Amino acid sequence: MTRSSSKNKIVLFVIATAVVVLLLSLLSAFEPTLLNYLQSQMWKRPAPVTIIKALKLILRSALAYLVVRALRVLIFGLVFRLKRGYEAPTLARNIFSIVLFAIFFMAIFSNLYEDINLGGLLTTSAIFGVILGLALQDTLGNFFAGISLHADRPFQVGDVVSIGHEHHTGVVEGITWRAIKIRTFQNHLVLLSNSSVAKEAIEVCPRNNLNARLVYFSSLYTDSPAKAIHIIREAIREADNVSQVITPIVRIRNLGESGIEYEIKYWLVDYARYNDTDALLRQRIWYAFRRAGLTFNFPTRTVKFERKPRTAAAESDHDALVERLSAVDVFAPLSVEEIATLARATARHVFAHGEVVIRAGDSGSSMFVVHHGRVQVEVNDGGRFRPLAVLNQGDFFGEMALFTGEPRTANVVALEETEVLEIGHEAMKELFDTNPDLVESLSHIISERRRGLADRPEGSPLPDESAGILVSIKRFFGLR
Ligand code: CMP
User: Fold this and answer.
1) Looking at residues 444-472, what average pLDDT do you find?
2) For the whole model, what pTM was predicted?
3) Exposure pattern of 340-357 as b/e (b: 16+ CB <10 Å)?
4) Whose CA is nearest to atom 22 of ligand 1?
């Protein structure tokens, strides 16, 4: 409250009191005159006495109200504040005012209306009270929860609280009949009803208390913990809002996966500023690390490779591949070592019955040897696939696209579960460099297969293109 507004309030209070006192004195001074006047004027009910009594009741009640206000300011505004050092809760002030005013009012009423039994009046209104109570269940719940909160006094205005499992955290701004008002650290106001707060767990960080916080950091395992602890403690102990009463504690929290993890426990002067203070400490840590040549940890992994010993099964597998490739007629010119190298360079694939291994029109840079099973070569003949050849174990296919660079000429489909060995461009190129015969025999096979592919009338022979194919293979593989 500003100085001028409280001044205005005092002036208003003095004027109101003066007016009420004046009216009361006038009423008692001119009571007989007023009574005579009213009797002469009024020939119907209400009786003049009743009017005068009602006026007295109103004016005395108004005076009582002003007295209650004055006492409230005196007791809570001055005595409480000066003695305790903080503002009394609104709820406590309101209860005080209401109770005191009720006492005054009952006294005034009994004095004016001696014949009316106020106690009896209150008793007969019990049923009405029950109805009212039910209707105001929530309001009363909040009211009584508010009273019990005030009685317990778990926190006061200015304390930082964190309420309930939703963790409403902020500074308490006020406690009213209905709710507790919290200002969060995002400067939002949160209102929590007294009855709900009474049921929740409340974490209180009182204003006049040394509240502690934890801040975490970590360093490399190569940095000495003793050095890190000393340096950080010195770096933070004089930071703004860090209490000088208790020296901050820096200790190892965990030997983590990728570094030593530390925690700082420090006490704050003003707990409501903990976000800023935590941030300041983190900044101090960074500079201290930089000066001392310490390093923050980062996720690291030590990977150890273990060489798998060649098992007997792998050995016999390799032998089976060597045996299969040796049996392929085009590879006849290759030495044992070359076959073994080729076997290591192959990839094995299994296809189910009906699966397409090669699709006509696709590009391809590898050839295949049938290891187990059977495949069928099919060409598209006006929308229908015409079988061209069935290839068995030891036969090969896919060489045309590999050696000429042209698209696949036909579909190759597995006739049963089939395992094929895939040989790539690089593996073949190495063999071509040392085996000119291999290129030649492949060019013959390709020429032969091309003739099979050609859609021509029965008995009309196609010329042997093997010489041209040989030239194009050599060009494609950059051979001389
Ligand atoms: P490519 O053209 O790469 O893909 C389809 C494969 O089918 C082809 O290589 C040859 O390996 C194979 N192929 C094409 N025509 C025949 C044929 N007449 N006889 C056997 N195989 C063939």
Assistant:
1) 75
2) 0.42
3) bebbebbeeeebeeeeeb
4) 449
